[in-house]
Amino acid sequence: MLLAHELRTDALRILIPAVTAHTQERLASFKALLLAGIARSYGGDPDHLAVVTDSMPEERGEAALRRHFLVLYDTLPGGTGYLHRLAGQDGLRGVLEDARQVIETCVCVGQGRPACHRCLLRHVTDGEYELVSREHALDMLGDLFGRTADRWSTEPVATARDITLVHQVESELEALFRRGLLEWAERVDEVSVRTALTADGTRDTTLRFTAPDGTVRGWQMETQTPLGFTRPDVVFHSTDDDRRVAVYLDGYRYHASPEHLTAEDDAGKRTRLRAAGWQVFQLTWDDVQAWTGRTKPQADPVWKPYPNTAQKTAMDVHRRMHGGDTRDLSRFVWANPVETLIGYLTDPDPDAWRRRTQSALAGFAAVSATSRALADGEETGRRIGEALHGQRLAGGQGAVQIMATRDTSGCPLTIALDLRRGQTGAVWTALTVLDDSADVVAADEAAHRRRWQAWLYWSNLLQFLDAGEGDGVQLTAAMLPGFEPAELAVTGGVGWLTSQRRAHEPEAVGQTAEEAPAAVRDPAWDEVIEFLIDDPGLPGLARVLAGLGLPAPEAGYELGAAAWPAELAWPARRIGVVLAHRPDPGSNRDIDAEQRDRAYRDAGWQVRTATEWDAGELAGLVRKIAGPATNEHEENER
Fold first, then answer.
1. Can you give the C-alpha Rg of the chain in angstroms?
2. Most exposed residue of 252, 270, 376, 409, measured as fewest CB within 10 angstroms of its CB?
3. Interior/surface letters 496-513, b for 16+ CB within 10 angstroms, e for the rest
4. Phi and psi for 32 in degrees, rounded to 5?
5. How far is residue 588's CA from residue 584's CA, in Å, rounded to a whole number?
6. DSSP of 573-619, one letter per residue?
7. Which pLDDT value is given to residue 19?
8. 533: pLDDT confidence band, cut at 50, 70 and 90?
9. Burial class (CB in 10 A: 0-12, 13-18, 19+), 339
10. pTM score of the predicted model
11. Of 4-8, 104-108, 563-567, 584-588, which gets the smallest average pLDDT?
12. What are phi and psi of 564, to 5 degrees?
């Protein structure tokens, strides 16, 4: 028998910033800090207030994605008025500020304990003790109030459904990926991890992978590194050479659902990054969830792109034509994209990855849905255009074979095999197109979601074709009217990435974009980067600026008699990069940093921290003034 009663009273429902990671810990910790703040604000524990948890599924989105709430209610019929004071933005802010003071000043801070009965534990049940921690509580308060300054901001909404979870989901997916990668590294002998805490409490993580041949390769891992026009979720910088890897963690809800169709923008930015010399990997929520063991692997994942007969064809080509180990296809190609990424970090040999991709594409020769045509010269570009627009191919003459096909997820691919130099000199080009127009998505959203996942999967692989004089191209249907097959190397063009690089290079004075030289890296950057202080975003920003061909800055610049420091400075332009604020726990302010910023501002400088600068904007400001100054007065006038 279930007994219940209905209570008409006051209640306050609070959406908690927890979607996928540490959900129960955050619910319990926020419950404790809220009641601690109420007790401090109102001079005692109001025993007529109670808290329950609630949740509801997202209307669309990833499997098992839910919104979690705390419901604070008055147990007395009709309510007592307490919650009316708390419901306003000023009332809630005051309670949370009092809660932070309770947490930060408790004696258990100095004892190294996560919490105690003086601060948080008195407000939760015995079963919640293990869930509550000061770290979770302060992390959520930091999100609300800001880490280095008071950034409390409110705005009215009609319903909690109007509050977007996009940033929270992306942040937690990033945390899940990072934690899963480090836990995996602890379980395998071929990977070692070195993690050190920087001065501001952030983590500096370096992973070292040992390949089967004994070669050891190191990668420094960073998160949320600003690269000017884009900000990947995770970035890996090789410690052995200049290789760079950008990883995007894409949830369907905020990248491909009917409310957020961002595929065209995503493809444009990631192609531009590849054109700048980066390898780009795109992982979905489902990829990361399955790889970390939080969900069961799909029975028919998108990385099983065709039947067994086609797989046998691909393996045969890989063994006979490319001299490769057929097991590599199962380990790195027909595998969760996280495994593909790890395989690349372990052994980033571009030729090996190109051959694996070519073999995977060769499997489509055994797929019944594949149509073919032969072409040469201008006919090659025309045939590629037909395939991209969904036409079946047939006939023709020439040494370039064009194939139009679809994988088992329905993702279309156009493949060009250039045999003009014979089988041993064959050059492969492949393009994948996602039609995410509103009508197509609405017709069958589940099928669209699967095509989108396959589109990302193929784009991860096709990028390696660029190492063999071919092209790998990621497009959407909306991009086709502006796409010219004549830009592809197989049609006699300069190559897809080269054309994109030229399109985004700043034009030199008196030159067209085609005539403008590529950016030349100033070798003085090497010493600057080697001795940089490990500040959030600073190493990544320096590498991007160096790659943009910006002149090396003056490192360790000091302004005026007080010698206010800037880590990177271009004195002639009065542009600088300064260290992040490190607030004092007592005042929550960094007085020295505030005085430093004021001194630079009063001297006419623009200085920001590395995470506040946009690399493209900074580069534009440094380049803005052309030519050397003739004297100090002229420079000041400029």
1. 28
2. 376
3. bbbbbbbeebeeeeeeee
4. -65, -45
5. 5
6. TTEEEEPPP---TTTS--HHHHHHHHHHHHTT-EEEETTT--HHHHH
7. 55
8. confident
9. middle
10. 0.67
11. 584-588
12. -65, 125
Q: How confident is the model at residue 59 (pLDDT cuts 50, 70, 90)?
A: low
Sign of CA dihedral 291, 295, 296, 301: negative
According to DSSP, the β-strands at 191-197 and 564-570 are unpaired
Model confidence at 143: pLDDT above 80: no
Q: Yes or no: say if 342 and 245 are a contact pair by the CB < 8 Å rule.
A: no
Contact indicator for 354, 297 with CB cutoff of 8 Å:
no
DSSP notation for 211-276:
-TTS-EEEEEEEES---SS---SEEEEESSSS-EEEEEEE-HHHHTSTT---HHHHHHHHHHHHHT
In Å, the largest CA–CA distance within the chain is 91
Distance CA 579, CA 593 (A): 8
DSSP H helix total and E strand total for the chain: 21, 18
* Pairing mode of beta strands 203-210, 216-223: antiparallel
Terminal CA-CA length for the chain: 83
- DSSP string across 136-180: HHHHHHHHHH-SSS--------SSGGGS--HHHHHHHHHHHHHHH
State the Cα–Cα distance between residues 307 and 312, nearest whole angstrom: 9
Give the integer Cα–Cα distance in Å for 590 and 608: 15
How far apart are alpha carbons 197 and 189 in whole angstroms?
A: 24
SS3 405: strand
Closest CA to 353 of 462, 219, 495, 496: 462
**Whether 465 contacts 430, CB under 8 Å:** yes
Give the least confident one: 25-34, 471-480, 504-513.
504-513
- Comparing CA positions, the residue from 540, 585, 580 lying closest to residue 204 is 540
Residue 143 identity (one-letter amino acid): D
Classify 402 as helix, strand or coil: strand
